[in-house]
Amino acid sequence: MNAQLPRWVDLGLIPLLNLAAALLVAGLVVALIGQSPLEAVRLIVQGAFGYGEGVGFTLFYATNFIFTGLAVAVAFHAGLFNIGGEGQAYVGGLGVGLACLALDRWLPWWLIAPVAALAGAAFGAAWAFLPAWFQARRGSHIVITTIMFNFLAATLMVYLLVNVLKVEGAMAPESRTFEQAGRLPRLDWLMSALGYEQGGAPLNVSFLLALAACVFVWALIWRTRLGYEIRTFGANPTAALYAGIDPVRVTVITMLISGGLAGLMALNPVMGDQNRIFLDLAGGAGFVGIAVALMGRAHPLGVLLAAVLFGALYQGGAELAFEMPQITRDMVVVIQGLVVLFAGGLEFMFRPLVARLLAPFLRREEG
Amino acid sequence: MFDAAILILDSTVRLSTPLLLVCLAGLYSERAGVIDIGLEGKLLAGAFAAAAAAAVFGSPWIGLAAAVGVSIALALLHGLGCITFRGNQIVSGVAINFLAAGLTALLGQAWFSQGGRTPALGPEQRFGELSLPLAQTLADVPVLGGIWSELISGHSILVYLAFAMAPITWWTLGRTRFGLRLRAVGENPAAVDTAGISVARMRYLAVACCGALCGAAGAYLSTAQSAGFIKDMSAGKGFIALAALIFAKWRPIPAMFACLLFGFLDAAAIRLQGVSLPVIGSAPVELIQALPYLLTVVLLAGFIGAARPPRAGGVPYVKER
Amino acid sequence: MTAPAIELVGVDKSFGPVHANRDINLRVEKGTIHGIVGENGAGKSTLMSILYGFYQADRGEIRVNGRRVRIPDSQAAIALGIGMVHQHFMLVEPFTVLENVMLGAEGGRLLRGGAARARAELARLAREYGLEVDPDAVVGDLPVGQQQRVEILKALYRGAEILILDEPTGVLTPDEADQLFRILDQLRAQGKTVLLITHKLREIMAATDAVSVMRAGRMVATRATADTSVEELAELMVGRRVLLRVDKGPARPGEVRLRVADARAHDAQGVERLRGVSLEVRAGEIVGIAGVAGNGQSELLEAIAGIRPLSAGRIEICGAPLARPDPALARRMGLAHVPEDRHRMGLVTRFPARENAILGYHRAPRYGNGPFLDQGRVLEACRELMAAFDVRPPDPHLKTANFSGGNQQKIVLAREIERDPEVLIVGQPTRGVDVGAIEAIHRRLIELRDAGKAILLVSVELDEIRALSDRILVMFDGRLMGERDAAADERELGLLMSGVGAGRAA
Amino acid sequence: AELKPAVVYDLGGKFDKSFNEAAYSGAERFRKETGVAYRDFEIQNDAQREQALRRFARSGYNPIVAIGFSQAAAVEKVAKEFPDANFAIVDMVVDLPNVRSILFKEHEGSYLVGILAAMASKTGKVGFVGGMDIPLIRKFACGYRGGVKAANPDAVVFENMTGTTGAAWNDPVRGGELAKAQMAQGADVIYHAAGGTGLGVIQAAADAGKLAIGVDSNQNGIAPGHVLTSMLKRVDVAVYDAFKDVQDGKWTTGFEVLGLAEGGVGYALDENNKDLITPEMKAAADEAAAKIIAGEIVVHDYMSDNACPY
Ligand SMILES: Nc1ncnc2c1ncn2[C@@H]1O[C@H](COP(=O)(O)OP(=O)(O)OP(=O)(O)O)[C@@H](O)[C@H]1O
Ligand SMILES: Nc1ncnc2c1ncn2[C@@H]1O[C@H](COP(=O)(O)OP(=O)(O)OP(=O)(O)O)[C@@H](O)[C@H]1O
Ligand SMILES: [Mg+2]
Ligand SMILES: [Mg+2]
Question: Which PANTHER family does the UniProt entry name for this protein (chain C) (predicted)?
Answer without folding.
Answer: CARBOHYDRATE TRANSPORT ATP-BINDING PROTEIN MG119-RELATED (PTHR43790), GUANOSINE IMPORT ATP-BINDING PROTEIN NUPO (PTHR43790:SF4)
